[in-house]
Amino acid sequence: MSINTLARLAAEPGAAMPQPPSKEDVLAGLTKYIPTESITLYVAAVSSLPALKGTVITASNTYWFFVCLTPILLLLLFLGHLANAGKY
Q1: Taking residues 51-69, what's their average pLDDT?
Q2: Buried b (16+ CB within 10 A) or exposed e, 11-39
């Protein structure tokens, strides 16, 4: 909910203030848009970081790699769904 919406609703006489979403709702909304495959690969990569200590692969490099990989993976999954539906 945006600040503008909250301000507009607060300015209306007799209007009840809407409650912010709960943590469970926010987490469910976030995980709906991040591919499970990306999360699985990220957890596996982070768990292997102690074994890769002293190499060029660091926690920061791993994080940014997956920041870039997630939209690419999302696009590939979307195109796969379109191909299965016969629309692409």
Answers
A1: 90
A2: eeeeeeeeeeeeeeeeeeeeeeeebeebe
Residue in 14, 70, 13 with CA at minimum distance from that of residue 41: 70
Q: Is this model's pTM higher than 0.85 or not?
A: no
The separation between the first and the last C-alpha atoms of the chain, rounded to the nearest angstrom, is 35
DSSP output for the chain: --HHHHHHHHHSTTPPPPPPPPHHHHHHHHHHHS-HHHHHHHHHHHHTGGGGTTSS--HHHHHHHHHHHHHHHHHHHHHHHHHHHT--
